[in-house]
């Protein structure tokens, strides 16, 4: 009976983890913690203990204060140069006092502050996205609370929680074992012990070191095999892991290959532009009449401004923001990204090697057939509801057949760790779906879980593993004279090989070679129907002969074969479409399963994965040499009866063929293959903690279609990064080219000084910086969230070693830069007296026109870069954020041109509507010529084939 709420709170306050719990018996530890093993803590008690002991987390590093993040925005060398330029300009103003305010210095400072604000906001968004990602991928623990098994966040564990441990679990806290079944843990991270350590529940005397505490499990280690139940004795910083200072570490910020490449491009571009700036300054000093300190410092400020404008210093923030937004979109589509580099690699995936059960299929098993010695029994019903008839050729079962079926389903029910229960009017399974289907079928045959558990008390278990493909349990009956009952289930061939007899009509008969062949034929027939088959068997064991139930012991030998249980796991409705979509995208789906070859081939054919009628088995893989396997994986798309080491060999063989491989896995032994794959994909529902830790991406719904959706998102984000790179670099190169050519051709363009010692240039330093702020900000961010191109999944995968900036893109960047420079200088020439085109405007008017034309060039270029081959008209209104960014940029430019206070700061004059129209007409040439270039490229591709 539960205590009152007040008593529970008092119990939580009184509960104290004992010192040295490994020295005490399990009952003593439970008593000290005020908890019962079967009922666990109540929710109220757990909450009270959480408030007392705090969350089960290691102490994190202190967060970086906001003021330090703000100051960090001003440490970049380019920003420092701008601040120096602003200081020089302010010093000149103080010296000369030619204007009421130092407008140039104030303008430079304003742009620096606005850029810093934008960088701070982008970093804050990226930090929030990373924090959200960590919350989505937070570890879970299986506990018993309020008498029921449930999953809770590992951070909510408290001393006294009863934790269930299974193969592949990461142990969430230090705990004292109270029940084990062949439990082994890997403790290398804590003790340095390289081999798995066997665990038991017996007290350990003396001051045992960590590695000798066989009745304890420790936070951060993992379950290698077996099962166990433990009571939590320490959480958070009080665990052994928390006490070892050297093991505490923060996850380092990831530098993805893309970010490394962009950093390299930025540095190279910076060096090139710095060289150009130096040459430009030298040219101006030589060509122009630079005769005083004021003119010389003005030229230096211009050179700094040009270098700052040419280098897209906001690129890292934009890339981080784009990747973070992509991660959030993928999470909404049930794909949780653990490593940012996987987002880039997804776009290059050539092969998706997927498991069958639960990924390509629904993982809602239903037993359809029980084949025993006396015939075949069909079982009706669907799902996990324990309702459905049992019949043989449409008629009720005979006595002999009924006895065989009940015995077979009893063995399947006993060798089982799942729980079938009704919640909100719906039958659900806690545990493995296959085991849930066996319990459902047994219930249909009249076997109730409660009475069966009371009669057959479990004494030992030999757990299932992917290598053994077999599970056995040992049970004792209330009658002390009755022998022990061993129930076994597993792959039909494995079970059959361990059997010496067969159960026929209530009697045991010798299993003859003819019957073995007949059973194998039935297995093949069930597989041909698309049914997954399990073999079930039992044996009687004398009470005194149990000893240690070990995988290599006598318990699983000389079994009595009971029959085959055929169950169906229908393909997911969306899987066939996802497979077709993957093939259209040039991605080859491969099925790798531990199931029967016939079942695998049938499901693969139904989904369109393969047309061949056979699957390559693990046994056949073992016979292939390295070279033969490399040849085989080029054509074979279905692999069955494989072990984890086979998965690793298949992945490596595909990679040696130059393919980028995405690999799914769920078991602890799948971790090597997941790590070896270019993209490791773990199952979020059925996967183990170890597999999730080894993976790059975790599927929250274990669905193949989610992998394909993740590939689509990966391709889309890479395309968007290319878009804004193309945009930023082509626009900035246009600015540099305009300034360089403007200085070199100053005389021919009519750009002449009106007085002695005056230096005249195509643009003012503040105007260059303003262009950088207006056009490199909002439009580039909007390109980063551009919707995916509808054709993105109709193109082949991007070559893995292809950089983000290809030769074709560099040609496009040079083309846009040249068009921008020529158009801008054309407007400058047309507005000035003299030059190639006689104009009538003043120098401030010509500079304002050139300034506005450059801004409009870059805004038109936004539409140009959205696709390298499709017309800009296609999908013109699919990105409302892009239109909002363009409108904002136009409003800002209009303010700079027409507001008096900004006119003084940026040396602009007002323009007429006709002037704006002329600038827009010239600037639109980049879009028109871009369309012509794309048309010629499409025609060239069409002519080639």
Unreliable stretches: 245-254
- Fraction in beta strands: 15-25%
Helix content: 40-55%
Straight-line N-to-C gap? 80 Å
Shape: elongated
Count every beta strand, where a strand is a DSSP E run of 2 or more residues. 27
Task: Write down the overall mean pLDDT.
Answer: 81
Q: Which class of secondary structure composition applies to the elements?
A: alpha+beta
Described by strand count, sense and barrel closure, the largest sheet is: 10 strands, mixed
Count of helical stretches: 34
Our Rg estimate from Cα atoms comes to: 36 Å
What would you say this structure looks like, in words?
It is a single chain. 48% of the residues are buried. The strands form 4 sheets. Strands 10, 11, 12, 15, 16, 17, 18, 19, 20 and 21 form a 10-stranded mixed β-sheet that branches. The protein has 34 helices and 27 strands. With 945 residues, it is of the alpha+beta class. The protein starts with a helix and ends with a helix. Helix content is 48%, strand content 16%.
Keywords:
alpha+beta; 34 helices; 16% strand; 8-stranded mixed sheet; 945 residues; 10-stranded mixed sheet
């Amino acid at each position: 009976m539960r205590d009152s709420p007040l008593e529970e709170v008092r119990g939580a306050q009184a509960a104290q983890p004992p010192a040295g719990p490994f020295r005490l018996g399990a009952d003593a530890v439970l008593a000290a913690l005020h908890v019962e093993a079967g009922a666990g803590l109540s929710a109220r008690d757990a909450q009270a203990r959480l408030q007392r002991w705090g969350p089960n987390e290691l102490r994190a590093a202190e967060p970086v204060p906001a003021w330090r993040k703000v100051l960090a925005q001003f440490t970049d060398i380019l920003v420092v140069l701008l601040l120096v330029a602003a200081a020089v300009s302010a010093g000149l103003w103080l010296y000369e006092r030619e204007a009421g305010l130092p407008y140039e210095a104030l303008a430079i400072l304003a742009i620096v502050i606005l850029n810093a604000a934008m960088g701070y906001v982008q970093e804050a968004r990226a930090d929030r996205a990373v924090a959200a990602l960590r919350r989505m991928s937070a570890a879970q623990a299986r506990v018993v609370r309020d008498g029921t098994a449930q999953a809770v966040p590992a951070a909510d564990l408290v001393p006294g929680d009863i934790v269930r441990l299974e193969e592949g679990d990461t142990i969430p806290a230090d705990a004292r074992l109270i029940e084990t079944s062949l439990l082994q843990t890997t403790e290398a991270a804590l003790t340095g012990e390289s081999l798995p350590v066997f665990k038991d529940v017996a007290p350990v005397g003396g001051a045992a070191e960590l590695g000798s505490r066989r009745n304890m499990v420790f936070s951060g280690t993992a379950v290698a095999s077996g099962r166990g139940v433990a009571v939590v004795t320490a959480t958070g910083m009080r665990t052994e892991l928390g006490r070892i200072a050297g093991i505490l570490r923060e996850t380092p910020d990831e530098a993805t290959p893309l970010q490394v490449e962009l950093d390299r491009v930025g540095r190279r571009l910076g060096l090139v532009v710095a060289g150009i700036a130096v040459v430009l300054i030298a040219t101006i000093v030589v060509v122009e009449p630079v005769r005083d300190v004021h003119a010389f410092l003005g030229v230096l400020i211009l050179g700094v401004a040009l270098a700052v404008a040419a280098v897209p210093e906001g690129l890292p923030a934009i890339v981080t923001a784009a990747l973070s937004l992509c991660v959030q979109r993928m999470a909404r589509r049930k794909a949780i990204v653990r490593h940012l580099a996987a987002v880039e690699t997804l776009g290059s995936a050539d092969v998706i090697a997927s498991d069958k059960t639960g990924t390509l299929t629904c993982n809602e098993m239903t037993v359809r057939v029980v084949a025993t010695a006396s015939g075949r029994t069909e079982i009706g019903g669907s799902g996990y509801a324990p309702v459905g008839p049992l019949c043989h050729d449409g008629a009720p079962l005979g006595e002999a057949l009924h006895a065989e079926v009940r015995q077979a389903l009893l063995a399947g029910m006993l060798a089982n760790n799942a729980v079938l229960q009704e919640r909100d009017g719906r039958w659900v399974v806690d545990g493995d779906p296959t085991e849930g289907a066996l319990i459902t079928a047994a219930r249909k045959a009249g076997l109730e879980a409660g009475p069966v558990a009371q009669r057959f008390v479990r004494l030992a278990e030999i757990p299932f593993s992917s290598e053994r493909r077999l599970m056995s349990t040992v049970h004792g009956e209330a009658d002390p004279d009755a022998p022990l009952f061993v129930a076994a289930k597993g792959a039909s061939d494995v079970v059959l090989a361990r059997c010496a007899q067969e159960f026929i009509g209530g009697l045991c008969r010798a299993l003859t070679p003819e019957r073995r062949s007949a059973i194998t034929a039935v297995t093949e027939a069930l597989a041909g129907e698309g049914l997954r088959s399990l073999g079930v068997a039992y044996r009687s064991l004398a009470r005194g002969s149990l000893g240690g139930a070990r995988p290599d012991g006598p318990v699983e030998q000389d079994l009595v074969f009971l029959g085959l249980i055929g169950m169906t796991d229908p393909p997911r409705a969306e899987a066939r479409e996802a497979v077709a979509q993957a093939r259209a995208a040039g991605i080859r789906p491969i099925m790798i399963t531990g199931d029967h070859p016939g079942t695998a081939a049938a499901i693969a054919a139904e989904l369109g994965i393969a047309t061949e009628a056979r699957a390559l088995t693990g046994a056949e893989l073992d016979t292939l040499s390295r070279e033969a396997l490399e040849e085989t994986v080029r054509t074979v798309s279905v692999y069955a009866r494989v072990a984890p080491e086979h998965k690793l060999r298949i992945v490596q063989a595909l990679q040696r063929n130059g393919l980028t491989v995405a690999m799914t896995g769920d078991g602890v032994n799948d971790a090597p293959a997941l790590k070896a794959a270019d993209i490791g994909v773990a199952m979020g529902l059925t996967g183990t903690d170890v597999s999730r830790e080894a993976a790059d991406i975790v599927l929250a719904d274990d669905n193949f279609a989610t992998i394909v959706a993740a590939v689509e998102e990966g391709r889309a984000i890479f395309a968007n990064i290319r878009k804004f790179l193309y945009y930023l670099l082509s626009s900035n190169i246009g600015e540099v080219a305009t300034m360089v050519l403007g200085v070199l051709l100053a005389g021919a363009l009519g750009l002449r000084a009106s007085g002695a010692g005056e230096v005249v240039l195509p643009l003012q330093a503040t105007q260059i910086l303003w262009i950088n702020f207006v056009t490199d900000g909002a439009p580039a961010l909007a390109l980063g969230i551009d919707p995916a191109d509808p054709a993105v999944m109709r193109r082949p995968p991007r070559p893995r070693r292809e950089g983000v900036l290809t030769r074709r893109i560099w040609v496009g960047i040079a083309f846009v830069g040249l068009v921008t420079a020529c158009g801008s200088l054309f407007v400058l020439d047309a507005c000035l007296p003299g030059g190639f085109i006689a104009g009538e405007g003043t120098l401030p008017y010509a500079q304002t026109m050139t300034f506005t034309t450059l801004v409009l060039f870059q805004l038109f270029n936004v539409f140009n870069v959205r696709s390298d081959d499709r017309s800009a008209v296609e999908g013109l209104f699919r990105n409302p954020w892009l239109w909002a960014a363009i409108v904002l940029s136009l409003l800002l430019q209009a303010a700079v041109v027409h507001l008096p206070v900004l006119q003084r700061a940026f040396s602009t004059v007002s323009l007429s509507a006709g002037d704006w129209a002329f600038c827009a007409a010239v600037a639109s040439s980049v879009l028109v010529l871009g369309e012509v270039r794309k048309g010629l490229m499409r025609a060239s591709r069409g002519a080639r084939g």
